[in-house]
Amino acid sequence: MAMARGSNRARAGGGRRRGWLAGSVSGAVYVRDRASAHRTGFEDMRTIRIPNEATYLPVSLTDVAIAAPLLTRIVLGTTLPGMVLQAAAMVLYAGSAAQDWYERLGVRRIAFLPEFGADVRHLPPVPSAARQNELRILAERLNDGYTEDALPLAELAHRVDDHLIDYIAGITDQRIETSKEVRNFSLVALVFPFALGVADILSGDIAIFQDTGVFAPHIVAHEFAHRKGYYRELDAQALAYLALTASGEPMMVQSALCERLHRNIRVLSGEDEAAFDRIVRDLRLRDELEKQFLRLRPAPGLLVPLIADAMRTLYDLRMRVTGQNGIGDYDEGFTRFLHAFETSTRALLWFCVVVATLVLILDGVDGSIARRRGEASEFGARFDMETDAALMLVLALLVWMLDRAGAWVLLAGAWRYLFIAATFVLPSLRHPLPPSTRR
Fold first, then answer.
1. pLDDT tens digits, 279-295
2. Which of 313, 359, 349 is nearest to 28 (CA)?
């Protein structure tokens, strides 16, 4: 699929609700707990290796199949050798695609709705005010955290793939290893010079032949998600986005946030490029960022808009035939997914806050009532102490799992149990303590 300027193309993501919202409305990126994968131990995980043999060849097999007959006609004056070469390329292509398909049968794919609270069929609308507020916060986050860090394409591909593997493994306990190869040329660049790149879902072949700047990590992550068996565009967007935000690397996080901002702008501007320019300029992004956003407009020319429209129409049809919502999944679907994921997570946080507050209030009241009515007992005091300790441990675990604090917060919930452990070493700690209302 060609990655054309101005086309509705995006990437997004989610994971178990853990995280600082890196640029969303509330200030945290809801990301999967990468540490959970390390706690399980990658060495204990099953590894699925998808060969993607076609990606290691010096030239793309689709390029060979298209160009061979024409080249042999020009050079040798006959098309027969080219047709033989074309047939050989197609056999290799089919064999590589079939092998990849067979290996993907062992992939445990993420169930998006229960895991993230949204999927391609469950995308509640985003209120206009919420979208405008998100634009503002994303722009502020990008301006404040801007980094000029960049990597050569080959090194970037390896780094991005490592993050994607870790992220998916943190959810499925399964490492999916694929090719990390990315080409920098394809014949598509000659036919569609305004395109950013091209990707073949079946063979896994990817070519990026224009400088995509801050968007490069997200583009690579999105296409690599396809290689790992996530064929739906919205699913690939989701995994790319949260894998990058979960990485903690400024360059990766910046790319994900730029893509999210870009897609929100596209929703508001539609196909009106003048409106797109106006929104970008009104956001007052840093000059370095503003220039890269404005480069996403279609290149000028008479044929470019016609070709871009035809490509969008065909791609929209392909997506609908394959059970997706159409090309709108790149913009509207992507931003709706993230909003649904964010709001469902915030609802969980507020529910926990309300329940914990009620428990603490009742905890302060029940002892007073029991003493007033003469119903206080040693068992009741001990039971109250143990439930308080258990509540603190649960709250500490919740805060840590949602990435609101580091692992040190677990100490707050572990003091009671550390004290019990210490009594085995220091028997003097087992003596009863005098009554106190401060404990």
1. 999 999 999 999 999 98
2. 349
